[in-house]
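Lab meeting prep.
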Amino acid sequence: MRILVCAQEFKGSLTAMQATRAIATGLHRASPDAEVIEQPMADGGPGLVAIVCATVGAPTIERSATGPLGAPMDARFGLVDRVGSTPLAVIEAAATVGLTLVPVGARDPANATSTGVGEQLRQALLAGAREIIVGVGGTATNDGGAGLAQALGCVLLDDHGTPLPPGPRHLDRLDRIDAAGVETMLRGVRLRIAVDVTNRLLGAEGATAVYGPQKGVTPETAPMLERALKQWARVVARDLGVPIAELDGGGAGGGIAAGLVAIGRAAGADVTIESGAALVAEAVHLAEAIAQADLVVTGEGRLDTQTAFGKTVAHIAALAAAAGRPCIVVAGSIEAVPATVADAEASSPPGMPTEQAMRAGEELVSAAAARLMTRWLREH
C-alpha cells in the first residue's frame, strides 16, 4: 500500500513538517510494510517557503529586511528556477512580520508594519522573478499593507505634504498617495496572494475585528485602527483607483492582501487573491502525488465545520475525491467531519488540558495516526 501523508501545521504545537513526520511514524507502526510518502502542506502562513522549496529542490535566499516592529532582521524567500521562463518567487509574510516573531507582551499592532514584505518583494524582483506567490497568513500587523507599499516606493503624505512613518497608527492622517515610483517595478508582474480566509478589510468581519485581538488589539485601540484602515482604503480608492474595502480576502494578513492588490493593480501587475491551499498544492504537484497513492492521510489542529470552507484539509480531501482516493484525517480535536473525509481520529485525549496536549503533540499525533490506520485496515 502506498500512503501519501500531507498534513498542515498544528498551530502552537507542530509545524507542518513535524506533523507530517509524526503521522507517518504512527502509520508505519500500524502498517510496517506500507510505503509512506511525506508531503507537508501549508495554506499561505508559516512554512510556505520551506515546504515549497524543499519539495521542488529550490534554494531559499536570505536577505536583510525590516521586522514587524522596525528592527532589522534576516529573512528568507524562495526562488524556483523554471526552464524557459523567469524564476518563481515564493514569499511568506510571516517571515518578516510573523506573529511568532513578537513576544506576547510586546505585541503592538498599532505600530507593527508590513515593510519587510515589501522589501522581500523588491528583492525577489531584483532577482529576476516575474511571478511571485505571497502567503499572507500569521502576521502581527494590522496596517492594511501600507508598510509594504512604502517599501515598494509609495510615498504616503499628510495634509502638509509630509511623509508618514510606517505603522497603522499614522494612517488616519493620510491625505494622499504618490505611487509614481512603483509602476516600472511591478508592471507586467504576476502577483498571486495566498490566503486561507475570505474576510474583507473593514467591518464586523474585517481584519481588526476578527484577527486583531490575537495580535494585541484591545477594545480601546480597535476603533483607532479601524478608522486608520478606513482612511487608507478611502485614499487608495481615490488616488490609485483601486477599491479594496469590499474585497473578499482583503482582510487576510492584517489587510496585507488588500494592500498588495492596491499597489499591484495600480502599477499594472496581474494580481489575484487565491486559496492558499490550492496555490501550494499546485506548486508541489499534489494532485499528481495523490493519483499515485492508495490512501491519503492529512491533518490539522482542529477539524470542525469551518474545515469545509477553503481550508487545507478540505482542499486535500477534494483532490483525493476527484482522484478516487480515500482521505482520512488526524486532528488535534474533532467537532465535525466533512463529507469528503472517510474517517478521522482526534489526537487529544478527552479531558486533557489543551496546553498539555499541545506540548505532547508529536507523541499524541503519532499515536492517533496508528489508531486511525489500525481501524482503517480492520474495516477495509
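Slide two material, second protein:
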Amino acid sequence: MSNKVIELPPQPTYGFAELKIIIPRNTIRGFIITVSIFLLLLLAYFIYAKASERSNVALPRAPISKITLGGPIQQLEEQKEDAPPPPPSQQVMEIATAAKAGTPVPIPDAEIKEDLKEFATFEKLSESLAREKGQEIDINQLPQNFNLDTKVEIQQKEEEPAIDEFIPVEKEPYIDLADLQRKVVYPEMARKAGIEGVVVVRVLVDKNGKPKKVVVQQSDSQMLNQAAVDAVMKSTFTPAIQNGQPVTCWVSIPIRFKLR
C-alpha cells in the first residue's frame, strides 16, 4: 500500500505584526490628508469673502448741482401754479320728465323709462308694513260670535331627548311585557321559514305614555323588525317620573319571537 504525500500551501506572512505596523502609518497619513483638505477649504472661503467685499464697495457718485431755470420756462411754471383749479364736472342724470308748476299731466307709458315702470302699489306697501310691524288683524272681519276675552293657550313644542341622552328619573317607562307579547303578530314569511329570535327596540315614550319613536337596536332577523315595531306603537306605557312629574324618556324593550 503506497502512501501519498499531500503538500500544504505555505502559511501567509501577513498577520498581527504587519497590521501593528500598517495601521499607525495609515492613520497618520489620513490625518495629514484631512487637515490639508480643511486648510484648503478655509483658504478658499477667505478668498471668496475678500472678493465679495470688494464687489460690494459702492462706486463714487458724481456730484449733483442744482440749476435754477429762468426765462420763459420759469414764467410758464409760475402761471400754472397761479391758475385756479378747473371746476368739477357735474354729471346730470335724467331720471324722469322735469316737474313743472301747475296741473299735473299724466305721462304716456311709452315715455316712461324701463327702470321706472314698476311702482309699488298701495296694497303692496300695506303688506310690507304689516310684515315689519307684525300681523295685523281687522276686528271688523272677525265673526260676530267671536269672544275677544277668550284665553288661548299656546303649547310650546317640547324638545325630544337624544336616543343616548341620560335622563335622571325616579321611574323609567313601564309596560307589561306579557301583554305586549300578546300584541305581536308573527310574520307569516318568518313562520314558514322557521325563523325565531329576539328584537330589542328603543322606544321614546312621551309624558302621556304614548310611544313617539321606535328604533331597532338589535335583531336576530330583519324579517322580525317590523312586527316588533308595530306591536310597540300599538301599546300604551306608564311614563317616566322625574321629581314627581311625568317626562319624555327613552326605554329599551325586548320582544321574543318563538314558534310553538
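Talking points for slide two:
The first helix runs from residue 16 to 55.
The longest strand covers residues 197-205.
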